[in-house]
Amino acid sequence: MAAARIQTQRLEQILQARRDAAQVDFESVCAEILKVRNILAELGHNGQEPDQAYLALGADDLWHHWVAQRREALFRELARLHVLREDKARVLKNSNGRAQAFGAVVKQKQAAHAQISERKALAALNEMTVTERLARTIKS
Question: Could you tell me the superkingdom of the organism this chain comes from (predicted)?
Answer without folding.
Answer: Bacteria
